[in-house]
Amino acid sequence: MSRLAFLPRPGVRAKSLDPLAPVPLGDGDRAVAHMAASVLLGYPDDAVLAAVPTVRDAVAHLPAPVRDRLDGLAAALLDGDPGALQAQYVATFDLKRRCAMYLSYYAAGDTRKRGAALVRFVEAYRAAGFETTGDELPDYLPTVLELSARGGPDGARIAGALLAAHRDGIEVLRSALAAQRSPWTAAVEAVTLTLPPVDAATAERVADLVAAGPPAELVGLSGYGDPGTAGAGYANEGKDLPWA
Q: Global pTM?
């Protein structure tokens, strides 16, 4: 299930939410919280659902605001019908651009700039001694959280920088999930509680993104911005979906 290897409901418009006050955490507790969120934000297949009891045990000692959110989502996943959860997950994260878990999407949208942003994520993982595995793009939030949890001091520092640089996107995701009353809101909230406070400039960018959405210039992302491959492949997926 590891993603790393060594080397709004219809008609519901999201609104910008007030930032959550950070909860002080030591490095070990932050790693536990980020790994738990990484697992719980994954597609709820058999492997993820089988890991949920372990997640509940692991988060039991965390401060209440973080623990309660992660444990609440874990309980919802255990109590839910797997087929219904999977359908809800796809409808939320795959079919609603506002709920994208790809961090560079919010700042770069479907533009040529996003290819360069993805390259920076790949380089960041390599600097921490990791390569990404699987089919997800490197800016996938659960992968960044896994780097924070599993990457040791260097991985935690690098992942923290990635999360901080894309804090506006995380806040937009939180707002969109909350507008839909999604159970996965709790995991994103838990992550934001582990991050530094939102400054005024970031709050302004969040409000702008919630209102207008990311930049739009539809191009391919094959090769992560290689000029020879731009226009091919992935990124036109979802191009007809309205931001709102």
A: 0.78
